[in-house]
């Protein structure tokens, strides 16, 4: 028989607040990835070819640009490199400004800058001791017939960045060393061959969207004896008609299906990239003078 002064029938009190941690201090849960897009999806064959390509061709090691090469990028004097799958027209209408269109029914194809926007051996915050931002905008002028159903719902583009080499029939965000945001469903992709993650709404005709990456030193600046594998802290941001409307940190908590962040941590050169599918009329803007977004600091 138990003894003591406890009042009969009264259960013992447990101060659970002291034993259960305050979940408000926990980091946010990972953003759940989607198995497939709710709009259009590339073929399994294209995805398999891309995986084989990435296994066969590792990312190029970064190179230090010549002064002349770096000057071209600083002046936004960039030319489009179009993939063999690109069927349509593309022209440089002014320094730092492209205008183009793809044919009705065009399959997945890729445009990239001819030079990196980010040179790891020139722009890394570990070398400069300051942050580096890369950014550009795309204006959606028109949408026409898509590659599958000939509906405009099958057409669109993605804005992003890629490390080279990159499979020319894949949009930025789908394979290693890349990220992108898509016009048809607003999802964002980071090295993700599945359905991406919910991020924003579908882009509108006439709208201008922008994507940027800012590379920072880690919060604790590494000393000479720090781990040599330490990489820059990277924030990604997205704009619509000149307003910042979203973003994420590259090192956000990831789920097990995530494709990782290889090639995007500031340790490889990165090119501006636009993925296109179906008939699309567009402009690509690299010169800050024609951006709708106004940066606080000069790049």
From TrEMBL:
<keyword id="KW-1133">Transmembrane helix</keyword>
<dbReference type="GO" id="GO:0016020">
    <property type="term" value="C:membrane"/>
</dbReference>
<dbReference type="InterPro" id="IPR035780">
    <property type="entry name" value="SPRY_Ssh4-like"/>
</dbReference>
<keyword id="KW-0812">Transmembrane</keyword>
<keyword id="KW-0472">Membrane</keyword>
<dbReference type="InterPro" id="IPR043136">
    <property type="entry name" value="B30.2/SPRY_sf"/>
</dbReference>
<dbReference type="InterPro" id="IPR050618">
    <property type="entry name" value="Ubq-SigPath_Reg"/>
</dbReference>
<protein>
    <recommendedName>
        <fullName>D-lactate dehydrogenase</fullName>
    </recommendedName>
</protein>
């Amino acid at each position: 028989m138990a003894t003591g002064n406890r009042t009969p029938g009264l259960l013992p009190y447990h101060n659970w607040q002291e034993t259960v941690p305050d979940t408000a201090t926990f980091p946010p849960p990972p953003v759940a990835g989607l198995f497939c897009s709710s709009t259009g999806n590339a073929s399994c064959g294209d995805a398999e070819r891309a995986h084989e390509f990435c296994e066969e061709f590792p990312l190029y090691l970064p190179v230090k640009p010549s002064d002349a090469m770096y000057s071209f990028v600083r002046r936004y004097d960039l030319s489009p490199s179009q993939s063999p799958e690109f069927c349509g027209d593309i022209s440089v209408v002014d320094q730092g400004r492209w205008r183009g269109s793809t044919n009705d029914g065009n399959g997945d194809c890729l445009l990239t800058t001819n030079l990196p926007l980010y040179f790891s051996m020139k722009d890394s915050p570990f070398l400069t001791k300051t942050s580096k931002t890369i950014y550009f905008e795309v204006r959606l002028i028109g949408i026409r017939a898509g590659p599958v159903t000939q509906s405009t719902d099958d057409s669109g583009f993605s804005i992003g960045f890629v490390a080279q080499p990159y499979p020319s029939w894949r949009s930025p965000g789908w394979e290693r060393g890349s990220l992108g945001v898509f016009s048809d469903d607003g999802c964002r992709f980071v090295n993700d061959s599945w359905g991406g993650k919910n991020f924003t709404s579908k882009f509108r005709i006439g709208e201008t969207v922008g994507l940027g990456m800012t590379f920072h030193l880690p919060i604790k600046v590494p000393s000479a004896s720090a781990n040599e594998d330490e990489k820059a802290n990277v924030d990604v941001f997205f704009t619509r008609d000149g307003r910042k409307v979203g973003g994420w940190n590259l090192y956000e908590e990831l789920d097990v299906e995530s494709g990782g962040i290889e090639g995007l941590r500031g340790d490889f050169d990165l090119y501006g990239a636009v993925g296109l599918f179906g008939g699309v009329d567009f402009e690509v803007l690299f010169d800050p003078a024609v951006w709708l977004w106004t940066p606080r600091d000069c790049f």
